[in-house]
Amino acid sequence: MALEEVYKGENVDEVVELLDKYGKDAKIIAGGTDIVIDLRNNRIDPKVLIDISSIEELKGIKDKGEYIEIGAGVSFTQVVENPLFERNLYGLNKACHMVGSPQIRNKGTLGGNIANGSPAADSIPPLICLNSTLILKSVRGRREISIEDYYKDENEKIRPDELLVSIGFKKPKENQVLSFAKLGLRKALAISRLSIAILVELDEEGKIINIEVASGSLGKYPMRELELEQFLLGKKLEDSTVDEGVLVLQRAMEKRLAGRSTFPYKRVAVDRMFREALEEAMKYLDEVRL
Fold first, then answer.
1. Torsion-angle region of residue 259: left (phi > 0), alpha (psi -120 to 50) or beta?
2. Which pLDDT tens digit goes with each residue over 10-30?
3. CATH number assigned to the domain with residue range 56-170, chosen from the 4 options 3.30.465.10, 3.40.1650.10, 3.30.160.340, 3.50.50.60
């Protein structure tokens, strides 16, 4: 199938109408950092391209009190430069800051990172820890799905006639913090070989009363590390607890990655990444308690 048409979308409603008309024959292009490569390498062969890069309603970051809503067309640079993503949301800031080169961060979008579906997408583990919701629009109306279900449930994908318009999540409380750690081949310019995000809350005695851990590149898709969360809940983050937590995570990894050539490398690397993410989280929480 040869490319026949390129549309420059003026607004969301127009794009949704085009998606309804062309369905699987259409592809959305925003920053173009992934899709242009796929086109050049003949990985995709759409009949129609719909450019959404100029649609302002997809480029906003909205503070809605208890919630934050990020437009699907928001670039990684916009996230990094927005003061909303400092302090206890620094993990998302850091993940976006570690995406590619400055040029890629300026062009690449959060929505594109999600729609591309890569298991190594840096921004996804922090968004999973935040229990983020994807807001989709079609001529049939609005639909919401959790970002966790989007990756793990084949029935919860973006449909051919739907446009991802925004990502929303509830703000962490002051005594909660989101942290992130990544290991790549050449620092920020590398696709993530492994990443860990942690959202954690401690009580006055230093025990974990809420924790969510999400990983990237440790399975077929970014995912919650439920066994590790269950182990850590109710415990103090002492050295022995962290050591045992690493073993719990490594055992969970082995179930998914046993037999793969990357497993020995990732088994060692995840120890360092988990500890780094925890240390960053604890540093913030210690400052809050002072």
1. left
2. 999 999 999 999 999 999 999
3. 3.30.465.10
